[in-house]
Amino acid sequence: MKPLVYDLTLEGWEAWAAERGLPRFRAAQIFDWLYVKRVTDFAAMTNLPKQLRAQLDEEFRFAALEEITHMKSQDGTMKFLFGLHDQHVIETVIMRHQYGNSVCVTTQVGCRIGCTFCASTLGGLKRNLTAGEIVAQVVKCQQMLDAEGERVSSIVVMGSGEPFENYEATMDFLRIVIDEKGLNIGQRHITVSTSGIVPNIYRFADEDTQINLAVSIHAPNDALRSKLMPVNRRYPFDDLIEACKYYIEKTGRRITFEYALIGGVNDQPEHAAELAEVLQGMLCHVNLIPVNHVPERKYVRTPREDIFGFKKVLEHNGINTTIRREQGHDIAAACGQLRAKHMQSITG
């Protein structure tokens, strides 16, 4: 299988051109056609020599994603199910905000992390996506928005999969989308979420970027987190907190802690008080997420009054806290839900 035309960073294109004795500016031209003009075939790259276009066509493929279906929420959220070349499917979401359009991308087909409240893990991990398959999700969304005269203004790497278990591809994806000669998405408008892959939190801290980091914590202690998130047995809670402190110290940037509230499991005032104690003194923000009901799971939503009660305890202890605004609630917009329904439909 030929590599995707979206797999290469600008530096990658420059190296490709140099290996073939081409002038360096050809790389910038190719990059411009891909991400500024957003063409969908090599023949459209009219300022490239015909021979070079033929060479590109011989070495790379354009097609990355085939739209299988999409759903549109009453709030404007759009969720897409895309087919890949090997019959696997992934999800991508466009979320509409007052400040612009945000795209939530997927980094793996399925997920092996095993969080007990998440639909993404149903069926386990099938494979990692290439950098180009992640980039293609943003390009596809931008092409759709082009028709409306709008643009992708922010990206969240929070779809199915664990980005830090597909670290190299995720980092190449980030380098491509932030490049000023390409899509030029501002680094501070991008957030990468991890379930707590400790070694790569340290690695990410040393990358010297302005990209935001979110950590899915979901519990205030080791024992409860291990029940909810098997990854905690590999990277214990205390080690995770130490890695987060290193990130804050190294970058000077605030971490967002994602906390899914599950009725009667991790949503009591004592859980909030314990979490506040753990996070005391850290440059952080807690984003409370009322858990989506997944038919295959038995968890229930936290009552509204308990959500606000949890928030109040955290704020009383000086922890900056918000409740995530729900989007796409009517279209199975939680990670993995649409893919799970599709897989059920084709397997009977």
Automatic annotation (TrEMBL):
<dbReference type="InterPro" id="IPR040072">
    <property type="entry name" value="Methyltransferase_A"/>
</dbReference>
<keyword id="KW-0411">Iron-sulfur</keyword>
<dbReference type="GO" id="GO:0005737">
    <property type="term" value="C:cytoplasm"/>
</dbReference>
<keyword id="KW-0819">tRNA processing</keyword>
<feature type="binding site">
    <location>
        <position position="118"/>
    </location>
    <ligand>
        <name>[4Fe-4S] cluster</name>
    </ligand>
</feature>
<dbReference type="GO" id="GO:0051539">
    <property type="term" value="F:4 iron, 4 sulfur cluster binding"/>
</dbReference>
<keyword id="KW-0489">Methyltransferase</keyword>
<dbReference type="GO" id="GO:0070475">
    <property type="term" value="P:rRNA base methylation"/>
</dbReference>
<keyword id="KW-0949">S-adenosyl-L-methionine</keyword>
<dbReference type="GO" id="GO:0000049">
    <property type="term" value="F:tRNA binding"/>
</dbReference>
<dbReference type="Pfam" id="PF04055">
    <property type="entry name" value="Radical_SAM"/>
</dbReference>
<feature type="active site" description="Proton acceptor">
    <location>
        <position position="91"/>
    </location>
</feature>
<feature type="binding site">
    <location>
        <begin position="161"/>
        <end position="162"/>
    </location>
    <ligand>
        <name>S-adenosyl-L-methionine</name>
    </ligand>
</feature>
<keyword id="KW-0808">Transferase</keyword>
<dbReference type="GO" id="GO:0019843">
    <property type="term" value="F:rRNA binding"/>
</dbReference>
<feature type="binding site">
    <location>
        <position position="292"/>
    </location>
    <ligand>
        <name>S-adenosyl-L-methionine</name>
    </ligand>
</feature>
<keyword id="KW-0963">Cytoplasm</keyword>
<feature type="active site" description="S-methylcysteine intermediate">
    <location>
        <position position="335"/>
    </location>
</feature>
<feature type="binding site">
    <location>
        <position position="193"/>
    </location>
    <ligand>
        <name>S-adenosyl-L-methionine</name>
    </ligand>
</feature>
<keyword id="KW-0698">rRNA processing</keyword>
<keyword id="KW-0479">Metal-binding</keyword>
<comment type="similarity">
    <text>Belongs to the radical SAM superfamily. RlmN family.</text>
</comment>
<dbReference type="Pfam" id="PF21016">
    <property type="entry name" value="RlmN_N"/>
</dbReference>
<dbReference type="GO" id="GO:0030488">
    <property type="term" value="P:tRNA methylation"/>
</dbReference>
<dbReference type="InterPro" id="IPR013785">
    <property type="entry name" value="Aldolase_TIM"/>
</dbReference>
<protein>
    <recommendedName>
        <fullName>Probable dual-specificity RNA methyltransferase RlmN</fullName>
        <ecNumber>2.1.1.192</ecNumber>
    </recommendedName>
</protein>
<dbReference type="InterPro" id="IPR004383">
    <property type="entry name" value="rRNA_lsu_MTrfase_RlmN/Cfr"/>
</dbReference>
<keyword id="KW-1015">Disulfide bond</keyword>
<feature type="binding site">
    <location>
        <position position="115"/>
    </location>
    <ligand>
        <name>[4Fe-4S] cluster</name>
    </ligand>
</feature>
<feature type="binding site">
    <location>
        <position position="111"/>
    </location>
    <ligand>
        <name>[4Fe-4S] cluster</name>
    </ligand>
</feature>
<dbReference type="GO" id="GO:0002935">
    <property type="term" value="F:tRNA (adenine(37)-C2)-methyltransferase activity"/>
</dbReference>
<dbReference type="InterPro" id="IPR048641">
    <property type="entry name" value="RlmN_N"/>
</dbReference>
<dbReference type="GO" id="GO:0046872">
    <property type="term" value="F:metal ion binding"/>
</dbReference>
<feature type="binding site">
    <location>
        <begin position="216"/>
        <end position="218"/>
    </location>
    <ligand>
        <name>S-adenosyl-L-methionine</name>
    </ligand>
</feature>
<keyword id="KW-0408">Iron</keyword>
<dbReference type="InterPro" id="IPR007197">
    <property type="entry name" value="rSAM"/>
</dbReference>
<dbReference type="InterPro" id="IPR027492">
    <property type="entry name" value="RNA_MTrfase_RlmN"/>
</dbReference>
<comment type="function">
    <text>Specifically methylates position 2 of adenine 2503 in 23S rRNA and position 2 of adenine 37 in tRNAs.</text>
</comment>
<dbReference type="GO" id="GO:0070040">
    <property type="term" value="F:rRNA (adenine(2503)-C2-)-methyltransferase activity"/>
</dbReference>
<feature type="domain" description="Radical SAM core">
    <location>
        <begin position="97"/>
        <end position="330"/>
    </location>
</feature>
<dbReference type="InterPro" id="IPR058240">
    <property type="entry name" value="rSAM_sf"/>
</dbReference>
<keyword id="KW-0004">4Fe-4S</keyword>
